[in-house]
Amino acid sequence: MAKKEKKSRRKDEQGLAAAQQEKNVAEKESEPKERKEAPRPGPKSAAERKKDRRDGIVKTVFSAALGVLAGFGCYHLASSTGEYPWQIGEYPWHFILLSVLLATFLVQRATYPLLGIDAARFKTKDWLYVGFIAVDLWLVTWTILLN
User: Fold this and answer.
1) Nearest alpha-carbon partner for 78 in 19, 134, 145
2) How far, CA to CA in Å, does 136 sit from each of 3, 66, 72?
3) Cα–Cα distance, 55 to 68 (Å, whole number)
């Protein structure tokens, strides 16, 4: 007899659980969908892909050239002003690094429109990329010239 009571209780509980699930599903369907996914841009044409590739190459080469020029500039300034060949006046190294980063950023921001690249579309990732390239090649060039 106890087994029959347990089975009947389980069936009642299962029936209540199923009814609750149906109610939850009905509530979810009646709620308006709040999130709308942003429309994905369609595939790019061949001309757009070619322009994006050209812009990427120009960005990389231009920021690399700025880094090399900054390296030569720091070497020239250090050799004419500092007591040691790696010292530029009384400035610490991190001040020089931030100065190079700021100068290359400002030059790139002003020059990219002249090269046909829309700098207003740049995201943080893009600015970090070109900044890293410029600082990296500045440091490599200056180090090679000091040796």
Assistant:
1) 145
2) 78, 11, 13
3) 20
Q: What is the mean pLDDT of each run of 10 residues along the chain (147 residues)?
A: 61 63 62 64 84 91 95 83 68 85 93 90 91 94 89
Contacts (Cβ under 8 Å, ≥6 apart) of 8: none
Read off the tokens for 137: 């090649």
Q: What is the pLDDT of residue 88?
A: 74
86, two tokens: 């790696």
| Verdict on whether the full-model pTM lies above 0.70 | no
**pLDDT score at 60:** 94
**What is the pLDDT, as a whole number, of residue 63?**
94
CA distance 20 to 100: 65
Q: Are 96 and 74 in contact (CB under 8 A)?
A: yes
58-92 core/surface letters (b: 16 or more CB in 10 A; e: else)? ebeebbbebbbbbbebbbeebeeeeeeeeebeeee
Task: Give the separation between CA 67 and CA 142, rounded to whole angstroms.
Answer: 10
Q: Reduce the DSSP state of residue 17 to 3 states and report it.
A: helix
